[in-house]
């Protein structure tokens, strides 16, 4: 059947998809708008599958902290280009996904994208946007953090977000300290709060690497374990948050800095998410 320019424009306004694609969809569905929308959605699914191997290394981090600052949520929404990351429709969907996470408190990223927005799942909405924009788009991370006092930080690129929970706060004003620790995590990339948070698998791997390096350097066998342990202690100082040197106060560990702000003040947990 012949498809009018008016109908093509109507479908274009409904979906945001290009005029030629709208015309083809209406032609194939004999002017049935509902069927045409479904066909365009299917096209979006094909685009999504086709681009599944592409790297979505741009995007935006969305964060929400409740009024009591005892719980925070973080959603990382990825795309392929910086241009799309600033697209109003992309940002709008990211904000809707965060709002849904706040309302429903899903247990995982998979549960989050299965939630419904306007009677269709978040996955469906993402697929629609893929069809319109032509880039790989995905929710790459979803984190929830609870604690006595939570601070958040989003780097000015919008691609790096941190949540950190402090405990033993007492009556002290810790706002500046909390913000500083969040930025410490962003900059220094700790693997865990303290040494207990480093898995035995990582420890064994590091020791194996150190021993191999020392053997290559010709160190005597009887000294290998002692030197390797020394290197491991240095690893802990560099990669565990409380052992790290505080970036705003040289020669002072994060643990010592926090205890100086309020006796017993420390970090209970943190989340660091980067789109890269």
Description:
The protein has helices at 5-15, 19-28, 33-50, 82-85, 88-104, 109-114, 122-133, 175-188, 200-216, 224-239, 254-261; strands spanning 58-65, 71-79, 116-117, 120-121, 138-146, 149-154, 160-167, 266-274. It has 276 residues and is an alpha+beta fold. Among the domains are: 5-50, Ubiquitin-associated (UBA) domain (Helicase, Ruva Protein, domain 3), CATH 1.10.8.10; 52-146, Tetrahydropterin Synthase, Chain A (2-Layer Sandwich). The strands form three sheets. A three-stranded antiparallel β-sheet has the order 1-2-5. β1 (58-65) and β2 (71-79) form a beta hairpin. It starts with a helix and ends with a strand. The relative contact order is 0.12.
Topology summary:
Elements (H helix, E strand, L loop, with lengths): L4 H11 L3 H10 L4 H18 L7 E8 L5 E9 L2 H4 L2 H17 L4 H6 L1 E2 L2 E2 H12 L4 E9 L2 E6 L5 E8 L7 H14 L11 H17 L7 H16 L14 H8 L4 E9 L2
Antiparallel strand pairs: 1-2, 2-5, 3-4, 6-7, 7-8
């Amino acid at each position: 059947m012949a498809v009018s320019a008016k109908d093509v424009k109507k479908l274009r306004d409904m979906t945001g998809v290009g005029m030629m694609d709208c015309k083809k969809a209406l032609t194939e569905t004999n002017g049935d708008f509902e069927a045409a929308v479904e066909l365009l959605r299917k096209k979006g699914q094909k685009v999504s599958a086709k681009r599944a191997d592409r790297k979505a290394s741009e995007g935006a981090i969305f964060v929400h902290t409740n009024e009591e600052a005892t719980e925070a949520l973080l959603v990382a929404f990825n795309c392929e280009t910086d241009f799309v990351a600033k697209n109003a429709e992309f940002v709008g969907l990211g904000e809707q996904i965060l709002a849904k996470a706040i309302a429903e408190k899903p247990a995982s990223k998979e549960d989050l994208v299965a939630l419904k927005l306007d009677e269709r799942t978040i996955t469906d909405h993402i697929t629609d946007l893929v069809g319109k924009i032509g880039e790989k788009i995905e929710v790459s991370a979803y984190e929830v953090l609870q604690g006595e006092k939570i601070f958040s930080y989003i780097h000015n690129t919008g691609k790096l977000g941190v949540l950190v929970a402090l405990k033993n706060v007492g009556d002290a004003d810790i706002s500046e300290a909390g913000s500083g620790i969040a930025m410490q995590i962003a900059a220094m990339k700790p693997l865990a709060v303290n040494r207990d948070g480093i898995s035995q698998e990582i420890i064994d791997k590091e020791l194996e690497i150190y021993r191999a390096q020392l053997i290559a350097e010709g160190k005597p066998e009887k000294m290998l374990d002692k030197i390797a342990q020394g290197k491991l202690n240095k690893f802990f100082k560099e990669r565990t948050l409380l052992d790290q040197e505080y970036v705003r106060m040289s020669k002072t560990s994060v643990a010592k800095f926090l205890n100086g702000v309020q006796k017993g003040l420390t970090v209970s947990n943190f989340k660091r998410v980067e789109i890269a």
